[in-house]
Amino acid sequence: MKNGLMKVLWICLAVSMLWTGTALAAGKVVVVTGASKQDAKDVGTYQPVYDGIKEALAQRDTEIVFQYVKLDGAPDEATRVERGREAAKKALAENPDVVMVLNDESVVYVATQIKDTPVVFGYIFSDPEQLGLPQDNVTGVTRRSFAPDIWKLAREVTGAETVGLISKDSRSMAGVKSYILAGADKLEQVSGVRVEDVYLCDTFGEWSGLVNNWEHDLIYLADTSRIEKNGERMDAAELVGWTVENADVPVIGATERDTEAGAMFSIVTSEKQIGWQAGQMSAKILDGTPVSDIPMEAGEKGKLLINGTTVEKMGVDIPYDTLSSAEKIYE
After folding, report:
1. Which stretch of DSSP H or E encloses residue 306?
2. Quick one: which of 67, 151, 302, 315 could link to 193 by a disulfide (CB 3.0–4.6 Å)?
3. For the domain bounded by 28-143+272-298, which CATH number is listed?
4. Is 168 helix (H, G, I), strand (E, B) or coil?
5. What does pTM read for this prediction?
6. From residue 277, how far is each of 61, 121, 139, 271 by CA, in Å?
7. Where are the alpha helices (DSSP H) in 93-161?
């Protein structure tokens, strides 16, 4: 009798341990960023995406593995294809339940190589169709651009009618340039501001030469990372500060970091929110929901950020209603 009871207890304990182990084995997610680890750090907006992913999966005890592949800085198409293929193999070697890919390049060159494992993308700028989607095993979160909203606000408070964009030269920004210039008429209808050109730079010499001879009513900072000065990468805050100090026209930004560093204002996507949404999609997949039942989502409404010091210095009058709607004002 006693031996029989002990046997039952041991069986119950074993079942309990098995059930608990299953509950705690909350899956594995591999996150592939289509940039080198150093470039992702320099850009600065990837970290909030990572934070959002971690937050969304924190309660599940999910194992998250971060991988990086330098696609944007690849010298040619053949190299990008090969790096993407190797990145897909490396991700799948982890036997993940979900692969997450971050940025346009990682969708094109990594996600499209993966056929039988669920893929969730995030932090992309292009229309998914331009990136080779839809694909049955792929869903994700698009990153809306708030540039027209920024330009519209700039027109309201400064009277500007034209804008030029200035950015680090990269393959992704070259694509953005083509897209923006092709849609200049539509953007003008929406914002009231004409996009006249997009300037792509590698060095501070190129950047400063453009700023000192600017021909448009506004400077829009598209990507201030990885600009080189004397052979070394400039700190983005230093570059923004110099631009604001030396420009003869208002300088507006595309990121929170640039607004904090001196750009007059920006309306930005919450990168952390994008990461959180992508993490939630991954959680649904881990819970057994088919990818086909998880539609793609857009990033949620942007947040207005204002640099009060720059606004005051430029003598710009921003209406109280606009100021009161700002999520943050830097002084």
Report:
1. strand 303-307
2. 151
3. 3.40.50.2300
4. strand
5. 0.71
6. 17, 10, 11, 10
7. 104-109, 147-158
